[in-house]
Specification:
mainly alpha; Growth Hormone, Chain: A; 450 residues; two-stranded antiparallel sheet
């Protein structure tokens, strides 16, 4: 057996952590964006919940329109540095600069211009950076690998929100801008590390195999819905449902903390940190659990946990949620609501870590970017609907941010029903055999570094 094929029998952890720096950069920026942009819109510009929700879904509209197409584009792109890296080295620096300018905006149109530029640039490189993982990882290791990638994403979320909460409390006229600048620096650093250390594989063309045909996002959708791919349809519907639930709550969680629970801006930001912290700690275990007990079963367990935690935050009285059991580093006051959010982070890890591997194992290597793009097509479509739905509910309830926990359990339950009927998406041995053949010695040059 050749050296390259032997390497298919073990996970290359060092390589995965390096690829994970790309997703680390994505998560740092989004965690800070979702935490501090709503607070900025509320405090500096006095916008109501519906107006804030409209602005906060612009990122999802940009992702909806751009990410699937970029996924297809990257599948068919051939450059000296690979299919995915060109998008990263262009999109990441542009996003970082625009994001750093957001807190300096003195008028709403200027803020929107900075925001839209950030969102377009982020949409340009997110799908390629995520597609790198299945590009270099055999099917049997993709849940574990996605655990590593999302561990790095969770690390970015926790680092972004915890350091951001500390920076915003500093006694300085520009303290409100510090979280944004911190995020910009880390995004650029992450992109540089990926560019320096990650090398994409060069696939050998198999006998009788045709060059991949150019396709569009619409072609990808037709492939799924007209090709009678029942499992793909069910998985994408489930993704649509659970992201409605998750994004509806994530967008307003900081405002929920400040306006419903009565926490400070720092304390409200630490609510998101609680979810990110447990997601971070459970990301790699969630991948191992999915590989051992099955991705479908693991996702169903995570969905059940999310239904229970979200429902409890809706029905448990506020004074009980705020009951404090002391303080712990990073998370601040250790309240009952903190415990619930820590459990929610575990449930979200079980779902999120194993869903992308299920999706990419429904297709071939030449369509990994396309299916990754479709994953984001459905997740971002729901991320547009979820915040708008919750923003409308808050407005109709007279500004009661406690109502944001009403939508989540319903849509998580719908996702549970969809996944129950899925049959495929587990480890694919045939894909692993083809992956081993495609794994060339040129790509292994990075191993000398690791």
């Amino acid at each position: 057996m050749s050296h390259s094929m032997q390497k298919q029998d073990r996970i290359q952890w060092g390589k995965l952590f390096l690829i994970g720096f790309g997703f680390f950069g994505v998560s740092v920026l989004w965690s800070l964006y979702n935490t501090y942009v709503p607070l900025l819109l509320d405090a500096k510009f006095g916008l109501d919940s519906v107006a804030i929700s409209i602005i906060m879904v612009l990122d999802n509209i940009a992702a909806f329109l751009i990410q699937p197409a970029v996924g297809v584009w990257s599948d068919n792109l051939r450059t000296k540095i690979g299919r995915r890296l060109p998008f990263i080295i262009v999109g990441a620096p542009l996003a970082a600069v625009a994001f750093g300018l957001i807190p300096l905006a003195q008028t709403l149109p200027v803020l929107l211009a900075c925001t839209v530029t950030t969102l377009l640039a982020m949409a340009f490189w997110r799908t390629p950076v995520v597609a790198l993982m299945p590009d270099v990882t055999p099917s049997k290791f993709r849940s574990q690998a996605n655990g590593v990638i999302n561990f790095m994403g969770g690390l970015g979320l926790v680092l972004g929100t915890s350091v951001g909460a500390a920076l915003v409390k500093m006694d300085h006229p520009l303290a409100g801008a510090f979280p944004f600048w911190f995020g910009s620096i880390l995004v650029i650093l992450a992109a540089v590390l990926v560019f320096i250390f990650v090398r994409e594989p060069e696939y050998e063309k198999h006998e009788g195999e045709e060059k991949p045909k150019s396709a569009s996002t619409l072609d990808g959708l037709k492939e799924v819905f007209t090709g009678k791919q029942r499992d793909a349809i069910l998985i994408f519907l489930a993704i649509f449902f659970w992201f409605i639930a998750y994004n509806a709550i994530e967008t307003f969680l900081s405002l929920y903390g400040r306006n419903f629970l009565g926490l400070s801006d720092s304390g409200a930001g630490q609510l998101i940190t609680s979810v990110g912290a447990s997601f971070l700690l459970f990301a790699i275990p969630a991948g191992l659990i999915g590989a051992k007990f099955g991705r479908r079963r693991t996702i169903l367990t995570g969905l059940a946990i999310m239904v229970l935690t979200m429902s409890s935050m809706f029905f448990i009285p506020k004074d009980i949620l705020l009951t404090t059991h002391g303080r712990i580093p990073i998370l601040g006051d250790f309240m009952n609501v903190t415990i619930i959010l820590l459990l929610a982070g575990i449930g979200w890890a079980l779902i999120n870590i194993n869903s992308l591997p299920m999706v990419v194992d429904l297709t071939t290597k030449d369509r990994v970017g396309t299916y990754t793009g479709l994953y984001y097509f459905f997740s971002t479509l729901s991320a547009i609907i979820g915040p708008l739905l919750n923003g409308l509910i808050v407005k109709l309830s007279g500004g009661d941010y406690g109502q944001i926990m009403l939508v989540g359990p319903i849509f998580m339950a719908l996702a549970f029903l969809a996944i129950v009927f899925v049959k495929r998406g587990e480890i694919n041995p045939e894909a692993d055999r083809r992956h081993a053949k495609d794994y060339t010695e040129e790509y292994e040059g990075i191993d000398a570094i690791l």
